[in-house]
Amino acid sequence: MRILHKWKKTAEELPRFWFVDRLHHVVNARASLDETERRIDLLQLMLDVATSNEIKDDNNSDVIPKKLQYEEVVNNAFLFMIAGYETTSTALTYCTYILATHPTVQEKLRKEIEEYPDNNESDYDRVHNMVYLDSFIREVLRMFPIAPKATTRECNTTTTVCSYVIEKGSVIQPDMLSLHYDPNLWGPDDPNLFIPERHLTRRHPVAYMPFGQGPRNCVGMRFALMEIKSCLVHLLTQYIILPGDEMEQKFKILDVHFVRQPEALYIKLAKRF
């Protein structure tokens, strides 16, 4: 019992438990606000659902409770914060690796950024029309999908695909890397080469799926892309990205966790001004 008590105390000191505890405080504080103090954000939307009346399911006459438990609100808030943390930072790691190893691409990207000067516009308005920046990020995520094993779907009816019978209830996981490097989908240029312009050509809708596909694709896709674009614009405006010592030796992609990331990345930053 003494050991269990000691472990419980240690576990509660972990960042995850601290973060969840803080979220409980935030949710409780927000739920106690009156209507005049109501905010318009994701947390408020979840709290609205948690306090709404019951509705009927469209598919049958059963009454389905629309309410979320407050614990579910906390857990979803935790998921939104954590799911976008390591994935986005890893995507930026790959972006900086490509920029360090492809100076011509970096310079072309910087020229496009300079065509849209910062005139006190929001980052969203500024990057919205940067076509090469968008193609650059798409090509990075094609060659280095962050979570290739995260997309799974359950087959809802028995079907046959290329002579293979897939039974209802089977869990399917697409081979994302094979799709992203298929020359029939990404030719005529070699898919192993980094060529952002290939994304200006219309491709098969499921040839590219770093965020999944269909109605259950990554809910944070647009936000993540906006984060990456904003960060790259500010970074390239102020710095030149150069290869660091032992960059290639340490750039070994680890595929043992949910996120596929390099062991380490060493770059150098040279101030432009």
UniProtKB/TrEMBL annotation:
Binding, heme: C218
InterPro entries from the UniProt entry: Cyt_P450, Cyt_P450_CS, Cyt_P450_E_grp-I, Cyt_P450_sf, Cytochrome_P450_3A
Cofactor (UniProt): heme
Pfam families listed in its UniProt record: p450
Keywords: Coiled coil, Heme, Iron, Metal-binding, Monooxygenase, Oxidoreductase
Keyword Transferase: no
GO molecular function per UniProt: heme binding; iron ion binding; oxidoreductase activity, acting on paired donors, with incorporation or reduction of molecular oxygen; steroid hydroxylase activity
Keyword Membrane annotated: no
Coiled-coil segments: 26-53
Family membership: Belongs to the cytochrome P450 family.
Function statement: Cytochromes P450 are a group of heme-thiolate monooxygenases. They oxidize a variety of structurally unrelated compounds, including steroids, fatty acids, and xenobiotics.
Protein name: Cytochrome P450
